[in-house]
Amino acid sequence: MTITSNPAEDRAADSGILSFPMDRAAGCPFDPPPRLQAQQQEEPLSRVRIWDGSTPWFVTRHADQRALLGDPRVSADATRPGYPRSAPSNGRNNISFILMDDPEHARLRRMVTGSFAVKRVQAMRPAVQKIVDDLIEEMLAGPNPVDLVQAFALPVPSLVICELLGVPYDDHDFFQRNSSALVKQSLSVEERTAAHGALLTYLDDLMGEKLAHPADDLLSSLVTRVKDGELSRNEAAQMGVLLLLAGHETTANMIALGTVALLEHPDQLARLRDTDDPKAIAAAVEELLRYLNVTHSGRRRVALEDIEVAGEVIRAGEGIVFPNEIANRDAEVFTDPDHLDLGRDARRHVAFGFGVHQCLGQPLARLELQVVYSTLYRRVPTLRLATEAEKLPYKHDGAVYGVYELPVAW
Ligand code: HEM
Predict the structure, then answer these.
(1) Per the record, which residues fall in region Disordered (predicted)?
(2) Can you list the domains of the chain with their CATH numbers?
């Protein structure tokens, strides 16, 4: 868990401005960096220095984050000057509507919302349960110990999103490797652009095949819109990349990191294992989302107009960073926030973001996590870490937090 110092951090130390991302190395692997916690209490609206030396606003309180993320005067358009990017970019690896504003964002998002509606997703429960059951059986029949990331955490959401989109799961090595590279901020711009280009070409080829042989899947429905002139082929392929990437990276990290957190909190794990009440399981999922908040590099936005907030004025053109992990530990909203309590009502968390860009796939993510967390530890009651939690390779360098590997035994 060593984090190398960087020049921006050193400069920041000189000027008294904190740098972001912050080091969580010394603290608990599930908690936001200790400095971030202090910042929320001492100076909830401040400036931070990011990798390029710029100093966007830094909003740490839950109420302020929700107010600003829900404000149409705040833009998610990464091509605007002042937008605080999380890593160097050549502007060629922006993926679809997550980095666009309305009305363009809404136009594209609307085309896929039906597939992620709660009712449609709930109908997938038996299929998701079968995927989970089969993978557990396969794992139990294989070597022990095993890496839970490769054997289970990555395959579950990958199989589900492949089924929904109509992507052949046989290609999983290719798309998992490139998706992981695309969000790995320690890679060079060229490496991330190459990963994006490979995924884009792959999705475009797949759409060509769907054009010739349409099926009952989401990519085929996008291809129909291309044929009808509602969408360009490039827009459709970009959307495919976004859905494929977002559909497996985040959930896979929640499955693996959630397992570490539960194994390190046996009282909470026992609570989950001993219930088959769907409401209790759903509540446990919300609490794990709140507590772990895997999208730890912060939401990023730029102000379109002057905005007054918490006694300060954010000027038009100034960047804003929202570390949602710390908003999820705001004592104003969650009692004893650093405590993992599967019985609490955590529904106000911002692990799925807030405002118009709030996670499109949240019903699907919830379903997958509910099925996983209510099945894995019951079916494998002796599941344990095959190494110490402190020694696991945590993902400090990605847009999504988690573990690269998770050796488990039973
Ligand atoms: C536990 C799993 C997940 C977490 C923690 C998560 C988190 C997030 C967050 C924080 C955002 C907001 C980004 C922003 O405001 O800048 C977001 C957006 C998004 N997520 Fe998820 N996500 C998860 C699973 C999924 C799944 C399964 C899909 C399925 C395809 C998905 C698709 C998307 C899409 C398309 C957006 C962009 C929405 C928009 O810009 O309108 N996510 N997600």
Answers:
(1) 22-45
(2) 7-409 (1.10.630.10)
